[in-house]
Design goal:
Layout lengths: L9 H10 L9 H20 L8 H11 L1 E2 L1 H12 L6 H9 L10 E2 L4
Antiparallel strand pairs: 1-2
């Protein structure tokens, strides 16, 4: 039986924005959720590919390390800033990304370990 693809809700996305002291009203929360969930779905598909089960434990661990989470820095740079809208205060978020602020944050999504 195929595993259900995980998703973050609009409320969860808004919570992540608030955690970063961003006002969700300034951002396209639905668009950010769609982009985030697309990324999660791609990673989930990589992790649940039937071929992976035939790999060595080391290769499986390396694969999980690459596709088993969505880092906060990637979320803010690739999902939040890229989705916008242009009127959102993205320059300030980009400065925070560039300064490494989100590098130490927990991932916004983590797959269960196999």
């Amino acid at each position: 039986m195929p595993q259900k693809t995980p998703k973050l809700s609009n409320d969860e996305i808004a919570g992540l924005l608030r955690r970063a002291d961003l006002d969700p009203a300034d951002w396209d929360v639905t668009g950010i959720a769609a982009r985030t969930n697309e990324w999660i779905a791609d990673n989930h598909a990589e992790l649940t590919d039937a071929e992976v089960a035939r790999w060595s434990a080391q290769l499986q661990a390396e694969h999980y390390a690459e596709f088993g989470s969505l880092a906060a820095v990637d979320f803010f740079e690739q999902c939040v800033i890229e989705t916008g809208p242009d009127s959102a205060p993205w320059q300030g978020v980009q400065a925070r990304v560039d300064a490494g602020e989100f590098d130490t944050w927990d991932p916004v999504w983590t797959a269960p370990k196999p």
